[in-house]
Amino acid sequence: MTAGASTAEHAFEAVLYPNPALSDRAFWLFMALTGAVTVAMASLFVSLGAWPVGGFFGLDLLLLWLAFRAARRNARWQEWVRVDAGAVTVRRVAPDGRTAEWQFEPSWVQIHFDEPPQPHSLVVLSSHGRRIALGSFLTPEERREFAQALSDALRRFRRPLF
């Protein structure tokens, strides 16, 4: 997650994204080591005459690779939040590249977050019957920090300048 105040034209801007499970190098190293152990164990069972067990070791390795692949794909998720003079804009980019965008009136938008945060607590923006949950992939503490930063930005934006 990156967040921060920027120029006077933008009161607040944040990009939320999940932390990747492993770097590319670490992923391939992990798969190589796991593959080596899997081949060794499968070979042992095949040499003892339990050849069907070798197939299950291969299936385990394939399922592990698929699970990490799905996790790495989901790590490409992004949510972009910007508060400026006319709107609170939320843009969500899915791992497959699909984009959705919502806009809320800054004077009317409300931020909901459980205090103290629970593992399932979400940052929810709502206004005029529309609701959107943000940062579902963040840790509860990161969601709390984001909700606080966004609340502070909205508070600064709503304060009249005399």
| Major sheet | 5 strands, antiparallel
Q: In what order do the strands lie side by side in the largest sheet?
A: 1-2-3-4-5
Q: Supply the CATH architecture of the largest domain.
A: Roll
CATH top level of the largest domain? Mainly Beta
Order of helices and strands: EEHHEEEEEEH
Structural key phrases:
3 helices, 5-stranded antiparallel sheet, single chain, 3-stranded antiparallel sheet
Structural notes for this entry:
With 162 residues, this protein is of the alpha+beta class. Helix content is 41%, strand content 26%. The model has no long low-confidence stretch (mean pLDDT 86). It has 3 helices and 8 strands. It folds into 2 domains: 99 residues, PH-domain like (Roll); 51 residues, no CATH class. Strand 7 and strand 8 form a beta hairpin. It has a 5-stranded antiparallel β-sheet with strand order 1-2-3-4-5, with helices on one face.
